[in-house]
From TrEMBL:
Enzyme Commission number: 4.2.1.3
Protein name stated in the entry: Aconitate hydratase A
Gene3D superfamilies reported in the protein's UniProt record: Aconitase, Domain 2, Aconitase, domain 3, Aconitase, domain 4
Keyword Lipoprotein: no
């Protein structure tokens, strides 16, 4: 069904390239290093890259996109003038399905509400050779794990939990759409060579503890920033006690500590999973080079020499964890959780338990949680909280149904939602009596930021394993510890729940479910991509105009931002999600969260044409309509957060020529360059203070724009005085060519 999972002769080429890498580096290698160096775009560029500082260019093997981010990625790809994607790619319709009453009705609603988006994604997939997974087929990362991931491979995905595929020994990295386009058009893809965090797992997983607890504990150690610009690589004897899907759970949630990705070595469990999911040929080929799909023995023996940081977790001693509320790194072992709940006065009653998301919705997850639900039914225990289950894929759902794993949940009143993200991304029409009341929910998801699941700031959201979700749902309170406590049944009898049990993979094999994958046409040249001219959700991208060859003079100051200005401040998510495929409509949210340094208000800036104040996007539009370009001035780390390219495309679309900041977040700086913007930094940060609200601004030196050569900023103040100072940039010649062409995509045609 799926074509081209493994590039031709992949493992023989992998071994050959690895031998070359060894001859250059001449030292033992970790697994992550092997895969990264093997995937360098140009083997002639092989050298010892400095981890954490040097940039390198890579050639990933494939791309995956979810429906919310795929829209802008594919709109950009369409402008690249290619007839097919350069590497196998896939689109997954999972984010736009709202969980409300149950799988069947919710899917029907999604197909109606999102029809034009789905039609667009299907037609563009058919045209350009992309696999299209329709709504209900599953969540992107589960589908990738079941169908596309392979040991030793490298992929990018337009979603931050792409690292899920690290459970099958793949370097899988979440990126913005513009980066995905680089890979899809066959351009080198740039990444800072990541640092390496080695996590040694000793002992064996047992009892109530599950793979989720490894990453919940690690999140407490590393915090939400501790993995930034690093790959987390697992090794040690404990690895062999984890199933492939359990490893995927751990890698998935590495995103919550900011890691570039996470990875496990190839082993028998990897091969077992590959065989069970119809990829026995890949399992055999990978097994033949197994030594090259794990860290070298020297690195495992003395990890402190080869990893930048080493952490050890003993699985024998690992307890179940419950993390939250509001942040995934608030890590609590269950033995301490009751005390914490009481001390912090968290709402004790659990109102809803949710199992699902790309993190924890595998066959093993459902099998073990079902064993607890079955005990409840057999012992006449009444469940106290509501229960919702969203399977990770149709393959898992159909198999779980066949094997009687869904029935125990339904028997105690559980609701089975569509195989989609649903509540995990706020697509949950939660029925609640009193949204003002503080309340607790427990889920097997990965993120628990305020409002993420149900939009309600009064919801205290705790993330834990599916086993604990089920047990706490039965008890209906956070203070229940199934390892030590009993639970009363309807007859008043105290019941002690037994440890969860379940197969990691179905003994009879996976059921023959409808895959939900529509394969592309062999020749898509005659396929017309469907975008209605009056659509409010989709809009074809018009190429950005090339540079006119002159210095920028008389730019209006659109906004001088104060303090933090993340991609969320620049292009908000939430209700704006529906416009992710419509640049003009989503541009209405431009910088609406940024604080104006002159009045300390958000979304209220001076219109220099008439002295009035208006929304940032409105003022930008007015200026643009009068043929006046503008500039944004900002403080440090402008554009941190998500990699969404809308934050660079929107100002470009509304006539902003440059962002002048104290510093940039790396991905956003690249995104600005790709969209043909100037990303400049104050040579002297104190010059930020010289910029006045009514200034007009020149950027001089563009006719000699060259790598390493600063540009000049000239401020024209309204009192007739002027100030000039230097602005630095990090453009290389290729990026200057993007600027001159109008954007990187214009260069590809
Ligand atoms: S299930 Fe949640 S975390 Fe996973 S891809 Fe969907 S929204 Fe993202």
């Amino acid at each position: 069904m799926q074509n081209n999972i493994l590039p031709q002769n992949f493992y023989s080429a992998y071994q050959k390239r690895l031998a070359e890498v060894r001859s250059h580096l001449n030292r033992p290698l970790t697994l992550a290093e092997k895969i990264l160096y093997v995937h360098l775009f140009d083997s002639k560029e092989t050298k010892a890259y400095q981890r954490g500082s040097d940039y390198a260019y890579f050639a990933p093997d494939r791309v995956a996109m979810q429906d919310a981010t795929a829209q802008m990625a594919l709109l950009q790809f369409m402008n690249a003038g290619k007839s097919k994607t350069a590497v196998p790619s896939s689109v997954h319709c999972d984010h736009l399905v709202t969980a409300k009453v149950g799988a069947s009705d919710d899917l029907h609603s999604a197909n109606v509400t999102n029809k034009e988006v789905y039609d667009f994604l299907l037609s563009v997939s058919q045209k350009y050779g992309i696999d299209f997974w329709k709504p209900g087929a599953g969540i992107i990362h589960q589908v990738v794990l079941e169908n596309y991931a392979f040991p030793g491979g490298m992929m990018v995905g337009t979603d931050s939990h792409t690292p899920n595929a690290g459970g099958l020994s793949m370097v899988a990295i979440g990126v913005g759409g513009a980066d995905a386009v680089d890979v899809m058009v066959g351009m080198p893809w740039e990444l800072k060579m990541p640092k390496l965090i080695g996590v040694k797992l000793s002992g064996r997983m047992n009892g109530w503890t599950s793979p989720k607890d490894v990453i919940l504990k690690l999140a407490g150690i590393l915090t939400v920033k501790g993995g930034t610009n690093a790959i987390i690589e697992y090794f040690g004897e404990g690895v062999s006690s984890l199933s492939a899907t359990g490893k995927a759970t751990i890698c998935n949630m590495g995103a919550e500590v900011g890691a570039t990705t996470s990875i496990f070595p190839f082993d028998e469990k990897t091969a077992y999973y590959l065989k069970a999911t119809g990829r026995a040929d890949i399992a055999e080929q990978a097994a033949a080079v197994a030594a090259d799909l794990q860290a070298d023995a020297e690195a495992i023996a003395a990890p402190e020499k080869y990893y930048d940081r080493v952490i050890e977790i003993n699985l024998d001693e690992l307890e179940p964890y419950i993390n939250g509320p509001f942040t995934p790194d608030a890590a609590h072992p269950i033995s301490e959780f009751v005390k914490i709940v009481k001390e912090k006065n968290y709402p004790e009653t659990v109102e809803v338990g949710l199992i699902g998301s790309c993190t924890n919705s595998s066959y093993e997850d459902l099998a073990k949680a079902a064993s607890i639900a079955r005990q409840a039914n057999e012992n006449n225990i009444e469940t106290k909280a509501k229960f919702i289950l969203s399977p990770g894929s149709e393959k898992v759902r159909a198999t779980a149904e066949r094997d009687g794993l869904l029935a125990p949940f339904e028997q105690f009143g559980g609701l089975i939602m569509a195989n989609a993200c649903g509540p995990c991304i706020g697509q949950w029409k939660r029925q609640t009596d009193d949204p003002q009341a503080l309340n607790s929910i427990v889920s097997s998801f990965n993120r628990n930021f305020a409002k993420r699941a149900d939009g309600n700031p009064n919801t205290y959201h705790f993330v834990t394993s599916p086993n604990l979700v089920t047990a706490l749902t039965l008890a209906g309170r956070l203070t229940f510890n199934p390892l030590t406590d009993t639970i009363f049944n309807k007859d008043g009898k105290a019941i002690k729940l037994q440890e969860p049990e379940g197969d990691e993979l179905p003994q009879q094999g996976f059921a023959q479910a409808e895959s939900g994958c529509l394969q592309p046409s062999a020749d898509g040249s005659s396929i017309e991509v469907k975008i209605a001219p009056d659509s409010q959700r989709l809009q074809k991208l018009q190429p950005f105009a090339p540079w006119d060859g002159n210095d920028y003079k008389g730019l209006a100051l659109l906004i001088k931002t104060q303090g933090k200005c993340t991609t969320d401040h620049i292009s908000m998510a939430g209700e704006w999600l529906r416009f992710r495929g419509h640049l003009e409509n989503i541009s209405d949210n431009l910088l609406m969260g940024a604080v104006n340094a002159f009045n300390e208000k958000t979304n209220e800036v001076l219109n220099p044409l008439d002295g009035s104040y208006g929304k940032v996007s409105q003022v930008a539009k007015t200026l643009k309509s009068k043929g006046i370009s503008s500039i944004v001035v900002a403080e440090d780390n402008y554009g941190e957060g998500s990699s969404r390219e809308h934050a660079a495309m929107e100002p470009r679309f509304l006539g902003v020529k440059a962002i002048l900041s104290k510093s940039f977040a790396r991905i956003h700086e690249t995104n600005l360059k790709k969209q043909g913007m100037l990303a400049l930094t104050f040579a002297n940060a104190a010059d930020y203070d010289q910029v006045k609200e009514t200034d007009t601004i020149d950027i001089l030196g563009l006719t000699e724009f060259a790598p390493g050569k600063p540009l000049t900023i000239k401020l024209h103040h309204t009192d007739g005085s002027e100030d000039s100072f230097a602005a630095n940039h990090t453009y290389n010649q290729e990026q200057i060519d993007w600027f001159k062409a109008g954007c990187a995509l214009n260069m590809m045609k």
